[in-house]
Amino acid sequence: MTILIDILKDQKKTHGSLRAEALSAAWEHLTALEILQKAIQEEFVGDITLSSSFGADSAVLLHMVAQIEPNLPVIFLDTDRHFFQTLQYRDELVAKLGLTNLVNLKADADEASTEDSKNTLWRTNPDQCCDLRKVRPLNRYMEGYGAWISGRKRHQSATRTRLPIVEFDGKHFKVNPLATWTAEDIDAYFKNHDLPPHPLVEQGFPSIGCFTCTKPVAAGEDARSGRWADSEKVECGIHNPIYGGDGI
Ligand code: SF4
Protein backbone atom coordinates (compact mmCIF):
# COMPACT_ATOMS: atom_id res chain seq x y z
CA MET A 1 0.00 0.00 0.00
CA THR A 2 2.84 2.40 0.90
CA ILE A 3 4.44 1.82 -2.49
CA LEU A 4 1.11 2.48 -4.21
CA ILE A 5 0.69 5.76 -2.29
CA ASP A 6 4.22 6.83 -3.27
CA ILE A 7 3.49 6.02 -6.91
CA LEU A 8 0.28 8.05 -6.82
CA LYS A 9 2.13 10.96 -5.17
CA ASP A 10 4.78 10.84 -7.90
CA GLN A 11 2.07 10.80 -10.55
CA LYS A 12 0.44 13.86 -8.96
CA LYS A 13 3.80 15.65 -8.99
CA THR A 14 4.47 14.68 -12.58
CA HIS A 15 0.97 15.70 -13.63
CA GLY A 16 1.28 19.01 -11.75
CA SER A 17 4.66 19.78 -13.30
CA LEU A 18 3.42 18.99 -16.80
CA ARG A 19 0.32 21.14 -16.25
CA ALA A 20 2.48 24.04 -15.02
CA GLU A 21 4.78 23.73 -18.04
CA ALA A 22 1.84 23.68 -20.43
CA LEU A 23 0.21 26.70 -18.77
CA SER A 24 3.52 28.59 -18.78
CA ALA A 25 3.96 27.99 -22.50
CA ALA A 26 0.35 28.97 -23.25
CA TRP A 27 0.40 32.10 -21.08
CA GLU A 28 3.96 33.38 -21.66
CA HIS A 29 2.84 36.00 -24.20
CA LEU A 30 -0.42 37.05 -22.56
CA THR A 31 -0.67 40.32 -20.65
CA ALA A 32 -0.56 40.13 -16.87
CA LEU A 33 -4.25 40.97 -16.69
CA GLU A 34 -5.05 38.18 -19.16
CA ILE A 35 -2.97 35.70 -17.15
CA LEU A 36 -4.87 36.66 -14.00
CA GLN A 37 -8.22 36.32 -15.77
CA LYS A 38 -7.27 32.86 -17.03
CA ALA A 39 -6.04 31.76 -13.62
CA ILE A 40 -8.92 33.17 -11.54
CA GLN A 41 -11.85 32.67 -13.89
CA GLU A 42 -10.89 29.53 -15.84
CA GLU A 43 -8.04 27.40 -14.52
CA PHE A 44 -8.23 27.63 -10.69
CA VAL A 45 -11.79 28.84 -10.07
CA GLY A 46 -12.43 29.23 -6.32
CA ASP A 47 -9.11 27.52 -5.62
CA ILE A 48 -6.63 30.40 -5.83
CA THR A 49 -5.40 33.23 -3.57
CA LEU A 50 -3.08 36.22 -3.95
CA SER A 51 -0.14 36.56 -1.58
CA SER A 52 0.86 40.21 -1.19
CA SER A 53 3.62 41.85 0.84
CA PHE A 54 2.00 45.26 0.29
CA GLY A 55 5.48 46.33 -0.71
CA ALA A 56 6.91 48.60 -3.39
CA ASP A 57 5.28 46.95 -6.44
CA SER A 58 2.28 45.28 -4.82
CA ALA A 59 -0.35 47.79 -5.93
CA VAL A 60 -0.08 46.55 -9.53
CA LEU A 61 -1.39 43.03 -8.91
CA LEU A 62 -3.84 44.23 -6.27
CA HIS A 63 -5.28 46.72 -8.77
CA MET A 64 -5.65 44.01 -11.43
CA VAL A 65 -7.21 41.51 -9.03
CA ALA A 66 -9.69 44.14 -7.82
CA GLN A 67 -10.91 44.48 -11.41
CA ILE A 68 -11.40 40.72 -11.83
CA GLU A 69 -12.49 39.40 -8.42
CA PRO A 70 -12.40 41.87 -5.48
CA ASN A 71 -13.37 39.09 -3.07
CA LEU A 72 -10.35 36.94 -3.91
CA PRO A 73 -8.45 36.06 -0.69
CA VAL A 74 -5.48 38.45 -0.41
CA ILE A 75 -2.99 36.98 2.04
CA PHE A 76 -0.76 39.26 4.09
CA LEU A 77 1.85 37.50 6.21
CA ASP A 78 1.76 39.63 9.35
CA THR A 79 5.11 38.90 10.97
CA ASP A 80 4.68 41.54 13.71
CA ARG A 81 7.87 43.08 12.32
CA HIS A 82 6.55 45.14 9.43
CA PHE A 83 7.26 48.84 9.06
CA PHE A 84 4.27 50.81 10.30
CA GLN A 85 4.24 52.46 6.86
CA THR A 86 3.55 49.03 5.31
CA LEU A 87 0.57 48.43 7.60
CA GLN A 88 -0.83 51.87 6.78
CA TYR A 89 -0.23 51.30 3.06
CA ARG A 90 -1.98 47.91 3.26
CA ASP A 91 -5.09 49.48 4.77
CA GLU A 92 -5.02 52.40 2.33
CA LEU A 93 -4.77 50.14 -0.73
CA VAL A 94 -7.43 47.71 0.44
CA ALA A 95 -9.88 50.59 0.93
CA LYS A 96 -8.96 52.44 -2.27
CA LEU A 97 -9.15 49.37 -4.49
CA GLY A 98 -12.27 47.90 -2.88
CA LEU A 99 -10.68 44.59 -1.93
CA THR A 100 -13.05 42.72 0.38
CA ASN A 101 -11.16 39.63 1.53
CA LEU A 102 -7.89 40.59 3.23
CA VAL A 103 -6.49 37.65 5.21
CA ASN A 104 -3.86 38.56 7.84
CA LEU A 105 -1.87 35.50 8.80
CA LYS A 106 0.28 35.39 11.92
CA ALA A 107 2.61 32.84 13.50
CA ASP A 108 1.01 30.30 15.79
CA ALA A 109 1.14 31.90 19.26
CA ASP A 110 2.42 28.76 21.01
CA GLU A 111 5.11 28.17 18.41
CA ALA A 112 6.18 31.83 18.61
CA SER A 113 6.47 31.82 22.39
CA THR A 114 8.38 28.53 22.34
CA GLU A 115 10.77 29.35 19.49
CA ASP A 116 11.17 33.10 19.83
CA SER A 117 10.50 34.05 23.43
CA LYS A 118 13.17 36.77 23.33
CA ASN A 119 12.15 38.22 19.97
CA THR A 120 15.68 37.76 18.67
CA LEU A 121 15.18 34.86 16.29
CA TRP A 122 15.35 37.20 13.27
CA ARG A 123 19.02 37.80 14.21
CA THR A 124 20.06 34.41 15.59
CA ASN A 125 18.30 32.20 13.02
CA PRO A 126 16.50 34.17 10.28
CA ASP A 127 15.60 31.02 8.33
CA GLN A 128 13.73 29.66 11.34
CA CYS A 129 12.15 33.07 11.96
CA CYS A 130 10.83 33.25 8.37
CA ASP A 131 9.66 29.65 8.66
CA LEU A 132 7.80 30.43 11.89
CA ARG A 133 6.28 33.75 10.81
CA LYS A 134 5.77 33.26 7.07
CA VAL A 135 6.15 29.73 5.72
CA ARG A 136 4.14 27.80 8.31
CA PRO A 137 1.19 30.26 8.50
CA LEU A 138 1.00 30.33 4.70
CA ASN A 139 1.20 26.54 4.42
CA ARG A 140 -1.56 26.12 6.99
CA TYR A 141 -3.86 28.52 5.15
CA MET A 142 -3.04 27.08 1.75
CA GLU A 143 -4.17 23.61 2.84
CA GLY A 144 -7.56 24.79 1.56
CA TYR A 145 -6.33 25.99 -1.84
CA GLY A 146 -4.55 24.59 -4.88
CA ALA A 147 -2.87 27.72 -6.27
CA TRP A 148 -1.64 31.19 -5.39
CA ILE A 149 -0.53 34.28 -7.22
CA SER A 150 2.78 35.98 -6.50
CA GLY A 151 4.25 39.27 -7.72
CA ARG A 152 7.79 38.05 -8.41
CA LYS A 153 9.63 39.22 -11.50
CA ARG A 154 12.60 37.84 -13.45
CA HIS A 155 14.54 41.10 -13.31
CA GLN A 156 14.49 41.35 -9.51
CA SER A 157 17.49 39.20 -8.63
CA ALA A 158 19.82 36.45 -9.80
CA THR A 159 17.60 33.86 -8.12
CA ARG A 160 14.60 34.82 -10.23
CA THR A 161 16.00 35.05 -13.78
CA ARG A 162 14.32 31.81 -14.93
CA LEU A 163 11.02 32.31 -13.17
CA PRO A 164 8.23 30.69 -15.22
CA ILE A 165 4.69 32.06 -15.52
CA VAL A 166 3.35 29.00 -13.66
CA GLU A 167 5.24 26.74 -11.23
CA PHE A 168 4.26 23.60 -9.35
CA ASP A 169 6.01 22.85 -6.06
CA GLY A 170 4.64 19.36 -5.59
CA LYS A 171 1.53 20.60 -3.82
CA HIS A 172 0.54 24.04 -5.08
CA PHE A 173 0.63 25.96 -8.33
CA LYS A 174 2.16 29.43 -8.23
CA VAL A 175 1.13 31.92 -10.89
CA ASN A 176 3.56 34.75 -11.64
CA PRO A 177 1.72 37.20 -13.96
CA LEU A 178 4.47 39.84 -13.69
CA ALA A 179 7.38 37.47 -14.38
CA THR A 180 8.38 39.28 -17.58
CA TRP A 181 7.81 42.81 -16.26
CA THR A 182 10.63 45.33 -15.89
CA ALA A 183 10.97 48.13 -13.34
CA GLU A 184 9.89 50.53 -16.10
CA ASP A 185 6.71 48.52 -16.71
CA ILE A 186 5.86 48.80 -13.02
CA ASP A 187 6.49 52.56 -12.98
CA ALA A 188 4.33 53.04 -16.06
CA TYR A 189 1.46 51.02 -14.54
CA PHE A 190 1.56 53.11 -11.35
CA LYS A 191 1.42 56.32 -13.39
CA ASN A 192 -1.27 55.15 -15.82
CA HIS A 193 -3.56 54.01 -13.02
CA ASP A 194 -2.73 56.75 -10.51
CA LEU A 195 -1.67 54.26 -7.85
CA PRO A 196 -0.11 55.55 -4.61
CA PRO A 197 3.53 54.51 -4.01
CA HIS A 198 4.65 52.76 -0.83
CA PRO A 199 5.93 55.66 1.32
CA LEU A 200 9.34 54.00 1.84
CA VAL A 201 10.19 53.80 -1.87
CA GLU A 202 11.28 57.44 -1.98
CA GLN A 203 13.51 56.73 1.03
CA GLY A 204 15.55 54.15 -0.92
CA PHE A 205 13.63 50.93 -0.30
CA PRO A 206 12.83 49.28 -3.66
CA SER A 207 12.06 45.98 -1.88
CA ILE A 208 10.37 46.07 1.51
CA GLY A 209 10.12 43.31 4.10
CA CYS A 210 10.37 43.30 7.89
CA PHE A 211 12.02 46.38 9.43
CA THR A 212 14.53 44.15 11.22
CA CYS A 213 15.81 42.66 7.96
CA THR A 214 15.47 45.40 5.32
CA LYS A 215 17.91 48.20 4.49
CA PRO A 216 17.75 50.91 1.85
CA VAL A 217 19.86 50.32 -1.28
CA ALA A 218 21.93 52.70 -3.38
CA ALA A 219 20.83 53.67 -6.90
CA GLY A 220 21.79 50.98 -9.42
CA GLU A 221 22.08 48.16 -6.86
CA ASP A 222 20.06 44.92 -7.08
CA ALA A 223 16.59 45.87 -5.84
CA ARG A 224 16.59 43.00 -3.33
CA SER A 225 20.12 43.57 -2.03
CA GLY A 226 18.71 45.39 1.00
CA ARG A 227 16.91 42.26 2.17
CA TRP A 228 18.90 40.29 4.80
CA ALA A 229 21.79 42.47 3.62
CA ASP A 230 24.31 41.19 6.15
CA SER A 231 23.80 37.48 5.43
CA GLU A 232 23.74 34.93 2.63
CA LYS A 233 19.97 34.68 2.88
CA VAL A 234 18.10 35.86 -0.23
CA GLU A 235 14.56 34.44 0.06
CA CYS A 236 12.20 34.03 3.00
CA GLY A 237 11.35 30.42 2.20
CA ILE A 238 7.92 30.82 0.63
CA HIS A 239 9.70 31.49 -2.66
CA ASN A 240 12.69 29.18 -2.54
CA PRO A 241 13.56 28.43 -6.17
CA ILE A 242 11.91 25.32 -7.57
CA TYR A 243 12.66 26.11 -11.17
CA GLY A 244 16.29 25.36 -11.80
CA GLY A 245 18.50 26.14 -8.84
CA ASP A 246 19.93 29.49 -9.90
CA GLY A 247 20.15 30.74 -6.40
CA ILE A 248 20.10 29.32 -2.95
S1 SF4 B 1 12.16 38.82 7.34
FE1 SF4 B 1 13.33 38.84 9.28
S2 SF4 B 1 11.88 39.38 10.95
FE2 SF4 B 1 10.69 38.90 9.07
S3 SF4 B 1 10.12 36.78 9.37
FE3 SF4 B 1 12.02 36.75 8.15
S4 SF4 B 1 13.77 36.69 9.62
FE4 SF4 B 1 11.85 37.16 10.75
Word description of this protein:
The chain is an alpha/beta fold and 248 residues long. It has helices at 2-27, 32-43, 59-68, 84-97, 109-115, 121-124, 126-142, 183-192, and strands spanning 48-51, 74-77, 102-105, 147-149, 166-168, 173-175. Strands 3-2-1-4-6-5 form a six-stranded mixed β-sheet. Iron/sulfur cluster (SF4) binds at residues 79, 81, 122, 126, 129-130, 133-134, 209-210, 212-213, 236.
Could you list some keywords that capture this structure?
6 strands, 248 residues, Rossmann fold, 8 helices, six-stranded mixed beta sheet, disordered C terminus, alpha/beta, binds iron/sulfur cluster
Radius of gyration: 18 Å
CATH-defined architecture:
3-Layer(aba) Sandwich
The helix content, as a percent range, equals: 40-55%
* Major β-sheet strand ordering: 3-2-1-4-6-5
Low-confidence segments, given as residue ranges, are 241-248
CATH C-level category: Alpha Beta
> What number of domains?
1
What binds here, in terms of ligands, is: iron/sulfur cluster
Give the terminus-to-terminus CA distance: 36 Å
CATH superfamily: HUPs
Pfam families: PAPS_reduct (PF01507)
Cofactor: [4Fe-4S] cluster
Enzyme class: oxidoreductase
Active site: 236 (nucleophile)
Topology overview:
Blueprint (H helix, E strand, L loop, with lengths): L1 H26 L4 H12 L4 E4 L7 H10 L5 E4 L6 H14 L4 E4 L3 H7 L5 H4 L1 H17 L4 E3 L16 E3 L4 E3 L7 H10 L56
Parallel strand pairs: 1-2, 1-4, 2-3, 4-6
Antiparallel strand pairs: 5-6
Iron/sulfur cluster binds next to helix 7.
Pathway: Sulfur metabolism; hydrogen sulfide biosynthesis; sulfite from sulfate
GO molecular function: 4 iron, 4 sulfur cluster binding; adenylyl-sulfate reductase (thioredoxin) activity; metal ion binding; phosphoadenylyl-sulfate reductase (thioredoxin) activity
Family: Belongs to the PAPS reductase family. CysH subfamily.
